[in-house]
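To: structure desk
From: M.T.
Subject: fold request, one chain
Message: Could you run this one when you get a chance? Sequence is below, nothing fancy, just the single chain.
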Amino acid sequence: MKQYTLDFEKPIRELELKINELEEFAKEGKIGLDGEIERLRQKAEKQKKEIYSKLNRWQHVQLARHPNRPYAQDYIDLIIEGFEELHGDRNFRDDRAIIAGLGRMKRVSTSSTVDEDSDDFRVAIIAQQKGRGTKDNLKRNFAMPHPEGYRKALRVMHLAEKFNLPIITLIDTPGAYPGLGAEERGQAAAIAENLFAMAQLSVPLVAVIIGEGGSGGALALGVADRVFMLEHSVYSVITPEGCASILYRDASFAETAAEAMKLTSTDLLGFKVIDQVIKEPVGGAHTGIEAVAKDIRILVSKAFTELQGIDCDARIQARVEKYAEMGRWIEN
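Reply: Done. Structure tokens follow.
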């Protein structure tokens, strides 16, 4: 995969290039530069940790959109075994912006290790999928689902309920597709139907925000018993560019809007919009996807085990109350 450097990462890349140059020079000239190379490595590691520990909200947005960031299919390949994708909404067409299907996931014990002796979880998984490159992005519609995508998701949710399968959703979208055709086919109604259905499903639901969580397009897969969020992902009612266009009449104020929106995992954990933050390796999830996928599987498995031990009616009531309690208001 081609390396992509964000603006705030340039000092790190410059040191890494210098280290590579010294290594090549030492190799070709047979000169002992081990001490200098090690010193630069330590300096680069220290600078890397310092930069990523002080990211502002706009830099979190940039990292959530990083071209090399793992997408839903990457995580499905690592945490789900025997995945069988299901297609279409049985009404209009198959929306490739949403992946949905059935599979198995290894059960994790309370000690955070895979329990090889226990049965796997049979699960339903629904995810928003971005594309890599122009051709793939066009096929996936840049992870902006049409109403048929949400209706496909709803179909799989009802299938999961029929066979008593817990549901995992992976959220990564700038928002639902706002085009004329999508509106003509009932985009708002499709999202509303998902919100209503997820609030009442009898099976456990766990949502994981892996990149961008934008607007109702994300919330349509996000009404869950537990909501987890990767450290450098974002979750908001609108994109920073969209917010800036409305409030400041200029999309170039996106960085200012991002600061005002408080859309990072730390912000949302403080607001109790999400339940837990999943740490990423220094540099982002794309620098260590296997470790991130393992942490996702551990958290989701533990959540399913806990939720399956709760009475169905009590679980649904707790889910409804979870969202009813969000927000603050004053009655005059």
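Reply (cont.): The first strand starts at residue 81 and ends at 86. Let me know if you need anything else for the meeting.
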